[in-house]
Amino acid sequence: MKKTLVALAALATVGAAFAQSSVTLYGKIDWEVVSKTARAVSVTPVAGVRTNPGIKLDSAGLSGSRWGMKGTEDLGGGMSAIFDLQGGFNVDDGNTAQGGAAASWQGTATGLGAARIFGRQAFAGLKGGFGQITAGRQYAPYDNAFGQVDAQGYTSNSAMGSVFCAGGHCDAGGPGRVDNQLTYFTPAMGGFNAQLSWAPGENGISGGASAGRYTGIGLGYANGPVNIQFAQESLRPLAGGTTTNAWIIGGSFDLGMVRPYLAYERASNGANTKDKGWSLGAAAPLGPVTLSAGWARETSDPVVGATSKASGFGAQAVYSLSKRTNMYVEMMNVKLDSGVAGAIDGYNKRFGVGMRHDF
After folding, report:
1. How many Å apart are CA 187 and CA 323, to the nearest integer?
2. In the chain, is it the N or the C terminus that has fewer CB atoms within a 10 Å radius of its CB?
3. What ranges make up the beta strands (E) of the chain?
4. Quick one: which of 275, 68, 277 has its CA closest to 161?
5. Does domain 42-107+116-358 sit in CATH 3.20.20.70?
6. Using CB atoms within 10 A of its CB, is residue 77 exposed (0-12), middle (13-18) or buried (19+)?
7. Domain ranges in the chain?
8. Lowest model confidence (mean pLDDT) among 50-59, 143-152, 185-194, 333-342
9. Are 167 and 298 in contact (CB under 8 A)?
C-alpha cells in the first residue's frame, strides 16, 4: 500500500513538473497566384527593360511562410525561461527563405552565405515581472514598430513597405532581423512599453571590431483605441559600409467602423543620402472581411545627383474562413522616379489571389 502511495506521489510530482513547461509547434503557410510586373529606373532606354514573369505560383502574399518551435518553463517566483526558433520557407518549392539562405549585413566568415535553419528568429531568455530579456537573432525595434503603423500590416503588397524600402533604407527602414542581439522589453505599464536592443560588432571579415554593430530603441503606447509607436536605430554594416541611422513615428486610432493610420520616417546613409517619407492608410472590418489600403511617398536626396522619388498605393481584402484560415486578394502599384531629365521611370506592380493557414 505504501509503495502504491509513493508511486502515485512520484507520478503527481512528474506531472506537475511537465505542466510547468511547454513546447509549441507553430507556423504559417501562405501561397498565392500572382502577376508581377516591374521595371527598374534607368537613364538609358536599353537598360530600362521591363521584367514580367507573368502569372506564377508564389509564396508569402500576406505573410512569409514559416514554421517554428517556442517554449516556456516556469522557474518559480513569477519567472520563466523562454525560447523561440523560427525558420522561413517558400511553400511553392520548399526552399528556405526570409533570411534562410543568405548572410545578413552582419555575416561572419563562418556564416557568410551559409543556409540558416532558423533565418527568421532564434533566441532564448528570461521573462518575469521585470519584463523580458532575450539573446539571439530577433526582430529589430524598427521592424516591430513598422508593422503596427502600417495599415496593411507590412505585407508583401504593402505600399508603405515597398515605397519606404525603395528610398534605399531597405527592409523598409532597417535590417528587419538582427543577429547577435541582446533585447530588453519592459513590462506593460498602463499601455506604455519599450524595447532596447544592442548587437556588438562581431567582426569576422574586415572593417574593424565595430562592423556589424547595431543599436535600436522602440517606444510605444497601446491602450484602448489608441496605438502610437516610435523607433530609432543605427547600424554599421561590414566591409567599410557607411553607418545608417533611421527613425519612424506613427500610429492609428480605432473609430469603430474604420481605423486610420499615419506614419512618418527619416533615414540617412552616412553623409551620402537622406531619405524622408510618409504614409496614410486605413483598415475596416466588415464582418468576416477586412479591407485595408495605404498610400506612401518617399524622397531620397543624395549629396551629389538628382533627388529621386517613390510613391505608390496598395490594397487588400482578407476573408476569414475560420480562425486559422483565410483567403485574400491583394494589389500594389508603385512608381519610381529617378529625378534625372530624360530617364526612364521604374515601377512595381502586382495583383494576386491567395490563401493563408496558421497552425
Report:
1. 28
2. N
3. 21-39, 50-59, 66-76, 79-89, 96-97, 121-128, 131-139, 177-185, 192-199, 214-223, 226-235, 244-253, 259-269, 273-286, 289-302, 308-320, 325-337, 346-358
4. 277
5. no
6. exposed
7. 42-107+116-358
8. 50-59
9. yes
- Given a contact cutoff of 8 angstroms between Cβ atoms, the answer to whether 103 and 82 are in contact is no
- pLDDT, tens only, 223-247: 999 999 999 999 876 555 677 889 9
For residues 349 and 36, the answer to whether their CB atoms sit within 8 Å is yes
Residues 6+ apart with CB under 8 A from 89: 59, 65, 66, 67, 95, 96, 97, 100
Length of the chain: 359
- Say which residue the cell 500590416 belongs to: 153
H helical segments located in 179-317: none
Cα 54 to chain centroid distance, Å, stands at 27
What is the model's pTM? 0.85
